Known about the structure:
Number of domains: 1
Largest sheet: 10 strands, mixed
Distance between the termini: 66 Å
Radius of gyration: 18 Å
CATH topology: Immunoglobulin-like
Helix content: under 10%
Number of strands: 10
Structural class: mainly beta
Amino acid sequence: MNRIALSLLLGLLAAVPAHAAAPAQVSASHAWIRVLPGSLPAGAYVVLRNDGDRPVSLTGASSPAYGEAMLHESSNAGGMSRMAMIHALTIPAHGTQTLQPGGYHLMLMDAKHPVQPGDTVKVVLEFADGSTLPVDFAARPASALGEKD
């Protein structure tokens, strides 16, 4: 009986992934960060596409190049610009969500080493279901308005 239980347990453990992979239906494109001078935080921008039948929630990010990453939303009301941390961002089923200057974005803080325009920065996007998506972000200068500036 113990041999059967052990075989069953080993089979279950083998079926559980050691690291949750990205949701198969989510992809990232046009990923870039705006590098600011000194120790100022960097804004990270990307287009996320969900080809699945259900919405997916982006809940955070991490990067080996930065000590902290947070989801933020910028807005402008009555001539006043604001930025607020958000806890999740929904990517609709069969739709896209764009993180861009002046809207949703990631704030990358506490750079572990100087990041220069032209560098590539790995950012791991984290989803509500525990899955992750590693994405390479192109570092752009502070004057950049988009991915190719």
